[in-house]
Structures are given as structure tokens and as C-alpha cells.
């Protein structure tokens, strides 16, 4: 608003000058006489001698009588400056600075509250032909006058305006000042704060809404107790102080520093009984009593001889504090302008006489007389006057005072940036105390600490988890050949333990002091731990998913370390890359943030990342990393859901599913912590840490509790109670075989078929039906998959398939026989082979459901399609194929740990599946027409007595009788082999080893 008034006044003045074409001529006045009429415009009364050219200097101040009631300090400054300039004029004459020039001073009156009036007065002053100006006393009116004088290259010196806006040389090219601006004041204040051993302060400035309580309330919550008021307007300063007083901010523990002496203004505007509340209020002002400077002592001597003006507010302060109202600065302006003219004449192009001639003809060239021109090594009552290119003082002299009973007491000085405390002058602070206040309010940290219950609980839980992880890892490594460890893969378990251990470490890094190293370490440690756990779970579960998607091309080798480590490393690099790049580009710092008046928190921030964005809880790199990690959780959860029905085939699928789901739940719970404000810091930090601890602890107990129990039982059976003895590597071979066989039993138990072969039950079922009949049925074990909307949402599952072509029905039973599904089908058709080379046919049911069946080869495909379509195949062909399969099965290597692939999808019309009552219950026979699925190699590992598993019945009327009675070659798939002795390829959780087969995918 002030700038707009200044520009408006400047524009009006220019219009007036251009249209009325004023004549800039010297005013005939008497030599060395100051005109001080009460008019608001210049009325020169002095006359100049005709022999010498005149150099006219205008004095532009407000009228003291207009401001006395509102601003007593400004009233005293005007009176003091006017009298000091008169004394300087006499001194110039006595020193004969300008022997060939008459120096005239003319008084003009500006208006502090009327910018237009100041503009017209300045215009009239220029019309009167002034060559230089002293003024103004107030910054806003100085901007108006300096803008106009700069257009006409008229030097202007101010002894009271300190606004930083006046340093703009594009707008005020010929303006300079003999007092320090706010920058010099700021440098002095920083030295004062350093000497007071404070590290934090608050800066209060005003724009439009002065004294709003919301701004001061923000100051209270910030915790800062050192307040600097940057506004130099006394009215604004008083309004701010009165508001702060009503809010209790002028009490003990607070420090308020103002940039000018406000004691007199407060004494006028505040009741006498209330002034005691302002005792200890501090001021910084230009130092005026430089007793070690001879020029000041000379001025002080002259000052004591001057009568006290009637308009001076306090006559008792005239001799002691009168010069403090900018008297030395006004003296310096007058002498600098006179010495500057003398320098300009000496350096004038064409010589001094040419300059005097041009001065007489009103054509004096004042272009070089910019602020740097007045650097003449001049030292006056105000000290050394050295100017920058902006017209500001390079250094300054300042006095530090505090208010006491309406007066000021100086307790220290700052000269040329050096702090000099006055001896035997104790500092009085607000609250009428000499006790040094801290820069921040007494406060407590909200960061987790060991000294608090919450921090101690986090520490105990994390340390306990780390100890358990370490003990478990030692046991896993020592007993890595036990079946439960071997099934899970020791490298997988070690990666899980390392990840859980890292999660606990990241929690410990949140406790106690916050440092940059801790901030970086806990970020990286948490991400590394997460990728170790979730990455290894994804790698393992994905392989399980692939294995049970393709049972015919299964290559069930153990989980190789290189495969697992490669996946985990790739995931880790992807998750860590954003953080590493961010930390390399933007340095991290630890900042304190006030939460309430008495509490704060320490946060790791990136101050150079983006000034327009407050990255505190979550920066862009952490956000990307969080999205990547959440994507990993989604993939792990999806794989866990896809393999949820394989828990009987793979002992850990259910546990890993729980871990995946729980990790996702923990991430959802912790997510709001990254977006809560600082006011909710405790909620955010403990929510995040609790989620980490819960997820890590849950993962540990779900995955390792059963293994720890198993290992402890094994240790107790081996009587290993002497912990100082090393683990014996020469224990009995059959113990290891038994343990390993346990895992094989778990893996192959999925393929065991149990049937009710009790003849009494069969006869009872037949008797229950009033009409006994027989139908032709076909039976086998096939991988079956139901078509889903998205093919990857369904998985192949082994089913016991019974087809009754005459009824156009089929039954799908689980391999344990506990659950069956009955379907009517419409058609059956073989599917064309794709790049994976699988043999698949599709069956459409009457409910528009499509079921896919997978078989071993083309012959099996044609056979099953014919059976579903009700077409019989010649028995001799089937017998030949069965014999070929039997021969091939004999050639299987001994290290095959699961039945031949001929057991899957090679069933034929045999006594086992032909004779049926009501098309469901079947009988078995020991003939060579037994189904192909029951033929296995002649190995001692698989030799069983057929009487253990078979009830022999006479052949059905629909079953041709065979002559082969070698029952020992028939493998009952419902039973489990006791053990095997081949240790060449330890089994893993991904199934059994089947050499010579290849894994592939199918899109159906």
C-alpha cells in the first residue's frame, strides 16, 4: 500500500513538472541562513550575495507539531535534526569548506500520513531549484521524495529512514543515508544473539493484518522465546506489544527486541501503572554517544549551550539524551553534502571555475554524485561514514537498551560488528528479573526413549526377537538335514531370519537420539529386511505355483540357493534404488519441530529437496519405495491365495499364506502414519513401529515355532544336553533317512488314494438298491482345472475321475476320497497343442462350465476323449499300450521319488473301474488288466504285499480275464513307501525329483 501511494504521488508530480515546466533557478537568499517558517511549503528568507554562486540544500521533514501527539519520539527527532543542521551550517562556515560558494539551507514540510502532500512539496522544492536534499525522517515519505529527486539527479541524504526498499538503486539512484539500514541492524542483532548464547529466535513482521492473535499463537506453539520485531513503525510496534501483553507473552522467560527506542511512545500510550509490565523490553538503536570520537565531543559541547525547544517532550532529557534523536546523523548529512560539492568542483570537467560557472547558470552537472561519490574518509560525530553502492552504511554503531520505569538503560554496544558490554550494568529481562532466559521453552521430546515405558517396551520386544532369530538360525544351520528343515530349504529359512532380524534392528534405531546416520540406517535396514522376507516368499511360492500348474512336465529339483538369492537381490535393488538416488542427491538433516508449547519431536528432513514442498514424513523416493513394497505384498498374497489348496502337498503353504496376508494387513495399518500431521507425531510413530514389530513377530512364530519344537524334540531324543559338545556329523545313517523320508511322505501323501474296499459295505450298498444293475465306467487320476474368467486365477489339481458314458456323467473326487463332485456333461473335445506341448481335452457340462483335463500323451488323449464320447476302443490296443507302459516303467531310474508319469492320465477300462453299482462304487481285480496308473518299476523300494491294500473280487462280466498274476508288480497308490535309500538329491518343498522331465506353462 505504501509503494502504491509513492508511485501515485511520483506520477502526479511528474505530470505537474512536465506540464507547468518549472524553472530550476537558484533562490536568492542571504548567505548561511536557515529558513524555518511554519508554512507547509518552502518559504526561503535568506538572500545570497551576487558575487558567489549558491548551492541550495532543501531540508524535508514533517512538521513537529503535527506528529507530537501521535509519535513523541519522531517529534524529538525532527527538533534535534533541525537544530543540529543549523550547528553544522555554522561549522561549515567556520571551517571555510566552500570559500567560493554560498551554502543555503531551506526548510520544507512533508506529511507522514499524506503521501500526496509530500509529493507536491517535493515537486515544489525541485521547482525552487534545490541542488541537494536532507530528508526525510520517515521511510515511507522518503521513498516518495527520493524517487522524484533521483529523476533530476539531485543527491539526497537521510538521517532517519532505514527501510530496505530505499536500497533499490533502480528507483533511488542518488539516495544515501548516514544511519544503518535493517541489514546492518540485522547483522548487529545476530551478533547480540550469539553473545547471549541463543541459537533460535522468532522474527515478527507486519504486512496488512497487524497484531493478529493467530500469528502470536503460532509463535507460542513454536516454543521460541526470543522475539525480534522487524517493523519500525511505532504504531504497529505498540499494537503488537499490547496484543502480546494480553496473551501473557511479556512475562518472565520471554525476550522482546525492537529496532528502535519505543520507551517514550509507550509512556504516552500506556497507563503509568501498567508500564512496569514493559520493564525489560529491549531496543536496538543507532549508537549516538561516541565519546571516543573527537567530532562527537565537539558537537556535545555545542549541544550543552543550546536552549531547550519548547516542543521537546521531556526537557530534563535535553542535555543527556537530546543528541540520541539522530543528531549526529543529521550533522553528517549536512557536512557530507558540503564536502561533496567541494569534491565535485575540484573534479569538475573543465576545472573548478567551469563548475562554479555552471552552478551559477543552473547547469551544474551532478551526474557523478552517486552514493559512492561521498566516500571521502569522512569521520563525524556519528563515526566513519563509508557507503556501499546501494547508499547504505557498510558498518554501524548500535546501542542495546532495556526499558525501566519508562526510560531506557544502555547495557551494551556493538561497534563495527563487535559486541562490547558495559561494565557494572546488569541486564534486566521481562518479568523484572536478571535471570538469563533460554531461547526455547522448557520442553520434552516425543521421540521414543528408553527412559519411558513405551520406548522400553519397544526395546525389550525388539531385543528378544533378535535373540530368538539368532538362536533359531544357529539351530537351523546345525540341523539343516532334518526333514522339517530340509523340506523348507535352509537357505530360505536363513533369509527369513535375516529379514526379521533386520526389521527388529530398524525398530531399535528409532529409540533415543535421532541422528542423520540413524535416519539413513533405519530406512535402508527396514527395506532390506522387508525384501528378504517377502522376496524369498515370492520366489518360493511362485515356484510352487509353477510346479502345481504343470504336473506332467514337473522337474521337482530342490530350491537352489542361486535361484532364491538372485530373486531376492533383484527385489532388493528395485526397492532400494529410489532411496539410494534420493540420499545421494539431497542431504539429510535432523530438525526439531514443536508439537505443543512444551513438546517437540526430531525429524529427518531434506531441506534442499524442494522449497515449495514440505517433505517431512514421506518424500517422493520413500513414496515410490512404499508403492514397490506394497506391490510385492500384493504379489505374495496373490500367490498365497493361488496355492492355498496345496497345503497337503506342501507343508508350509498355509503358514506362508498367513505371513503374506498379515504383512499386507500390517502395511495397511501403518500407512496412515506416513500422512498424519506433526501434531499427531506420537500416534504416527508408535503406529508404524507397532506394525513393524507385529509383522516381524508374527512371521517368526508362524514360520519357526513348529520347527523349533521339532528340533527340540529331536535334541531330547538324541540326549544332546551338553552344549559344549560339537554337533556330531557321524550319526546313524538310517536316522537321517527316516527324517528325510518323512518329507517324502508329506510330498507324496497328496497322491495317496483311499477307497472303501470292504465287501460287506459293498454288498450292503447293492442290497440297498431294489434293482441291481451294472454300467460301464472309466476311472483314472488326472489333473483337472476349472476355467475361470482369468486363466491364471485357476490351478491344476489332481482329481480322481470316474466317467460313466452311458449316463453322460462323471465324478470328480479328491485324492483322499473325502469330497466328490457330480457333473452331467454335454460334449468333450481335445484341445489343440500349444507351444508348451501339453495334451489337454475340455469337457462342457450342462451348466455351461468348462473343465480342462490333462493327460500324458496323444494316445491317452484320444482314449479319454473316446470314453467321454461313449466310443469303445479295442482291448488289444489298450493291452499293448499298457504293456509298453509297464515296460517303460521298469526302466525308470531308482532315484525317482514319485510314481511314474504313466500313473497320471493312463487309466483304461479295467476291472478296477469297469464294474460299478449306480456308477459310483467300483471293484478291483488282481489281473493284468489292472489300470495303468498302478504299474510301477520293479524296485525293492516299492515292493509291497498286495494283500495289504487289495480286496480281490471275481472279474466282472464286462471285464476280460487276464492270465498274469504277478501281484507284486502292482503298486497301490493309496499306500506310502516306508523309506528310500537314495540320498543323491535331497527333496525340497517343491516336490520330488523327477529326472528327465521339463517344466512348462499352459494358458488354459
Automatic annotation (TrEMBL):
Residues 913-927 have a biased composition (Low complexity). Residues 454-711 form the G-protein coupled receptors family 3 profile domain. Gene3D superfamilies: 3.40.50.2300. The chain crosses the membrane at residues 456-479, 491-511, 523-542, 563-585, 615-639, 659-678, 684-710. Residues 872-889 have a biased composition (Basic and acidic residues). Residues 1-25 form the signal peptide. It is found in: Membrane. Residues 890-912 have a biased composition (Polar residues). One of its GO terms (molecular function) is G protein-coupled GABA receptor activity. Residues 872-927, 969-1004 are annotated as: Disordered. One of its GO terms (biological process) is gamma-aminobutyric acid signaling pathway. Its main location: membrane. It comes from the Eukaryota. It holds the Pfam family ANF_receptor. It is a multi-pass membrane protein. InterPro entries: ANF_lig-bd_rcpt, GPCR3_GABA-B, GPCR_3, GPCR_3_C, Peripla_BP_I. GO terms for cellular component: G protein-coupled receptor heterodimeric complex. The keyword Signal applies. Keywords: G-protein coupled receptor, Glycoprotein, Membrane, Receptor, Signal, Transducer, Transmembrane, Transmembrane helix. This is G-protein coupled receptors family 3 profile domain-containing protein. The gene is ABSGL_10896.1 scaffold 12033.
Amino acid at each position: 500500500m505504501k509503494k502504491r501511494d509513492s508511485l501515485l504521488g511520483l506520477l502526479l508530480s511528474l505530470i505537474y513538472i512536465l506540464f507547468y515546466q518549472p524553472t530550476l533557478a537558484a533562490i536568492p537568499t542571504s548567505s548561511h541562513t536557515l529558513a524555518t517558517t511554519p508554512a507547509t511549503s518552502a518559504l526561503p528568507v535568506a538572500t545570497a550575495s551576487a558575487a558567489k554562486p549558491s548551492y541550495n540544500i532543501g531540508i524535508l521533514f514533517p512538521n513537529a507539531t503535527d506528529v507530537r501527539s501521535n509519535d513523541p519520539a519522531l517529534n524529538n527527532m525532527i527538533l534535534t535534526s533541525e537544530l543540529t543542521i543549523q550547528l553544522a551550517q555554522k561549522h561549515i562556515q567556520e571551517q571555510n569548506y566552500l570559500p567560493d560558494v554560498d551554502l543555503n539551507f531551506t526548510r520544507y514540510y512533508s506529511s507522514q500520513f499524506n503521501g500526496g502532500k509530500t509529493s507536491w512539496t517535493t515537486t515544489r522544492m525541485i521547482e525552487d531549484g534545490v541542488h541537494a536534499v536532507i530528508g526525510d525522517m520517515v521511510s515511507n515519505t522518503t521513498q516518495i521524495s527520493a524517487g522524484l529527486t533521483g529523476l533530476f539527479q539531485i543527491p539526497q541524504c537521510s538521517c532517519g529512514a532505514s527501510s530496505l526498499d530505499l536500497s533499490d538503486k533502480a528507483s533511488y539512484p542518488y539516495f544515501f543515508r548516514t544511519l544503518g539500514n535493517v541489514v546492518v541492524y540485522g547483522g548487529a542483532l545476530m551478533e547480540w544473539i550469539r553473545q547471549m548464547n541463543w541459537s533460535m529466535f522468532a522474527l515478527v513482521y507486519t504486512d496488512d493484518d497487524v497484531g493478529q492473535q493467530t500469528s502470536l499463537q503460532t509463535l507460542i506453539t513454536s516454543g521460541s522465546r526470543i522475539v525480534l520485531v522487524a517493523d519500525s513503525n511505532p504504531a504497529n510496534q505498540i499494537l503488537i506489544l499490547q496484543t502480546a501483553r494480553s496473551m501473557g507473552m511479556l512475562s518472565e522467560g520471554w525476550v522482546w527486541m525492537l529496532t528502535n527506542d519505543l520507551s517514550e511512545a509507550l509512556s504516552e500510550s500506556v497507563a503509568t501503572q501498567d508500564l512496569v509490565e514493559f520493564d525489560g523490553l529491549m531496543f536496538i538503536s543507532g549508537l549516538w554517544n561516541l565519546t571516543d570520537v573527537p567530532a562527537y565531543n565537539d558537537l556535545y559541547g555545542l549541544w550543552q549551550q543550546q536552549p531547550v525547544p519548547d516542543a521537546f517532550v521531556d526537557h530534563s532529557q535535553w542535555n543527556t539524551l537530546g543528541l540520541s534523536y539522530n543528531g549526529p546523523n543529521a550533522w553528517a548529512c549536512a557536512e557530507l553534502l558540503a564536502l561533496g560539492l567541494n569534491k565535485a568542483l575540484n573534479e569538475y570537467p573543465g576545472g573548478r571555475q567551469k563548475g562554479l560557472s555552471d552552478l551559477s547558470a543552473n547547469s551544474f552537472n551532478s551526474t557523478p554524485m552517486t552514493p559512492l561519490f561521498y566516500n571521502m574518509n569522512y569521520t563525524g560525530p556519528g563515526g566513519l561514514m563509508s557507503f556501499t553502492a546501494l547508499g547504505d552504511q557498510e558498518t554501524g554503531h548500535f546501542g542495546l537498551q532495556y526499558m525501566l520505569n519508562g526510560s531506557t538503560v544502555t547495557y551494551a554496544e556493538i561497534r563495527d560488528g563487535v559486541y562490547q558490554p558495559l561494565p557494572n550494568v546488569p541486564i534486566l529481562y521481562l518479568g523484572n528479573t536478571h535471570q538469563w532466559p533460554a531461547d526455547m521453552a522448557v520442553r520434552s521430546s516425543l521421540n521414543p526413549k528408553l527412559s519411558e515405558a513405551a520406548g522400553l517396551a519397544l526395546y525389550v520386544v525388539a531385543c528378544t526377537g533378535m535373540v530368538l532369530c539368532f538362536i533359531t538360525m544357529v539351530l537351523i544351520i546345525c540341523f539343516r538335514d532334518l526333514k522339517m528343515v530340509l523340506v523348507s530349504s535352509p537357505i530360505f529359512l536363513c533369509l527369513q531370519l535375516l529379514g526379521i532380524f533386520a526389521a527388529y534392528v530398524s525398530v531399535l534405531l528409532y529409540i533415543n537420539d535421532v541422528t542423520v546416520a540413524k535416519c539413513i540406517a533405519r530406512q535402508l535396514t527396514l527395506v532390506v529386511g522387508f525384501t528378504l522376507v517377502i522376496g524369498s516368499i515370492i520366489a518360493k511360492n511362485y515356484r510352487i505355483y509353477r510346479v502345481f500348474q504343470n504336473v506332467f512336465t514337473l522337474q521337482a529339483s530342490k530350491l537352489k540357493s542361486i535361484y532364491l538369492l538372485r530373486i531376492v537381490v533383484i527385489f532388493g535393488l528395485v526397492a532400494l534404488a529410489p532411496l539410494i538416488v534420493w540420499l545421494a542427491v539431497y542431504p539429510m538433516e535432523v530438525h526439531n519441530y514443536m508439537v505443543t508449547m512444551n513438546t517437540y519431536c526430531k525429524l529427518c528432513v531434506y531441506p534442499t529437496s524442494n522449497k515449495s514442498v514440505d517433505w517431512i514424513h514421506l518424500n517422493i523416493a520413500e513414496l515410490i519405495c512404499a508403492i514397490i513394497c506394497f506391490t510385492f505384498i500384493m504379489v505374495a498374497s496373490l500367490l498365497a491365495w493361488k496355492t492355498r489348496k496345496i497345503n497337503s502337498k506342501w507343508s508350509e503353504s498355509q503358514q506362508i499364506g498367513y505371513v503374506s496376508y498379515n504383512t499386507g494387513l500390517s502395511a495397511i495399518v501403518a500407512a496412515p502414519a506416513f500422512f498424519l500431521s506433526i501434531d499427531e507425531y506420537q500416534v504416527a510413530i508408535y503406529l508404524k513401529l507397532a506394525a513393524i514389530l507385529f509383522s516381524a513377530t508374527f512371521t517368526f512364530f508362524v514360520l519357526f515355532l513348529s520347527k523349533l519344537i521339532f528340533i527340540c524334540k529331536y535334541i531330547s531324543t538324541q540326549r544332546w544336553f551338553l552344549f559344549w559338545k560339537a554337533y556330531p556329523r557321524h550319526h546313524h545313517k538310517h536316522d537321517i533317512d527316516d527324517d528325510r523320508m518323512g518329507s517324502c511322505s508329506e510330498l507324496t501323501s497328496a497322491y495317496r488314494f483311499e477307497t472303501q474296499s470292504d465287501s460287506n459295505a459293498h454288498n450292503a450298498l447293492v442290497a440297498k438298491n431294489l434293482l441291481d444293475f451294472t454300467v460301464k465306467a472309466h476311472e483314472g487320476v488326472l489333473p483337472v482345472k476349472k476355467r475361470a474368467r482369468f486363466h491364471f486365477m485357476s490351478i491344476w489339481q489332481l482329481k480322481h475321475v470316474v466317467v460313466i458314458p452311458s449316463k453322460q456323467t462323471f465324478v470328480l473326487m479328491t485324492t483322499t476320497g473325502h469330497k466328490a463332485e457330480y457333473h452331467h456333461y454335454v460334449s468333450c473335445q481335445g484341445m489343440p497343442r500349444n507351444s508348451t506341448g501339453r495334451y489337454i481335452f475340455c469337457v462342457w457340462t450342462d451348466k455351461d462350465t468348462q473343465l480342462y483335463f490333462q493327460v500324458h500323451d496323444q494316445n491317452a488323449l484320444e482314449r479319454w476323449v473316446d470314453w467321454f464320447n461313449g466310443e469303445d476302443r479295442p482291448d488289444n490296443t489298450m493291452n499293448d499300450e499298457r504293456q509298453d507302459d509297464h515296460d517303460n516303467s521298469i526302466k525308470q531310474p531308482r532315484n525317482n521319488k514319485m510314481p511314474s508319469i504313466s500313473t497320471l492320465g493312463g487309466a483304461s477300462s479295467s476291472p478296477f473301474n469297469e464294474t460299478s453299482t449306480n456308477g459310483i462304487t467300483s471293484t478291483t481285480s488282481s489281473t493284468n488288466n489292472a489300470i495303468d496308473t498302478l504299474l510301477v518299476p520293479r524296485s525293492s523300494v516299492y515292493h509291497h504285499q498286495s494283500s495289504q491294500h487289495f480286496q480281490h473280487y471275481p472279474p466282472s462280466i464286462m471285464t476280460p480275464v487276464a492270465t498274469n498274476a504277478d501281484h507284486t508288480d502292482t503298486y497301490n497308490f493309496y499306500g506310502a513307501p516306508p523309506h528310500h535309500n537314495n540320498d543323491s538329491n535331497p527333496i525340497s518343498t517343491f516336490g520330488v525329483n523327477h529326472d528327465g522331465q521339463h517344466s512348462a506353462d499352459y494358458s488354459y
